[in-house]
Design a protein that fits this description.
GO biological process, one term: regulation of DNA-templated transcription
Largest sheet: 3 strands, antiparallel
Low-confidence stretches: none
Radius of gyration: 12 Å
Strand content: 5-15%
Protein name: ArsR family transcriptional regulator
Mean pLDDT: 91
Organism: Mediterraneibacter gnavus (Ruminococcus gnavus)
GO molecular function: DNA binding
Shape: globular
Order of helices and strands: HEHHEEH
Helix content: 40-55%
Number of helices: 4
Length: about 80
């Protein structure tokens, strides 16, 4: 499992903003503003987290994809002792 610090930052951000179901998610643009990362980097990280089963795509916000934290991601943060 190849998880970077930025991956954890993104997952903690989703958890902090209660993005834990299909309806409640954050767009790439919203995540970029907080993490101060570029669009390609943010997109690559989110797709990787989706492939690993930590994050999934939620419902659309106008035309933008949203992303939310799955139970596997929540469990990883809690197992690592992360308090958000």
């Amino acid at each position: 499992m190849e998880i970077s610090r930025l991956d954890v930052v993104i997952m903690k951000l989703l958890k902090k903003n209660e993005c834990t179901n299909f309806i409640e998610g954050m767009t790439i643009q919203e995540i970029m503003k907080i993490t101060k990362t570029s669009r390609p980097t943010t997109y690559r990280k989110l797709i990787k987290l989706c492939e690993l089963g930590y994050v999934d795509k939620g419902c659309k916000s106008i035309q933008a994809d949203t992303f939310y934290l799955l139970d596997k991601g929540i469990n990883l943060l809690e197992r690592k002792g992360e308090k958000v």
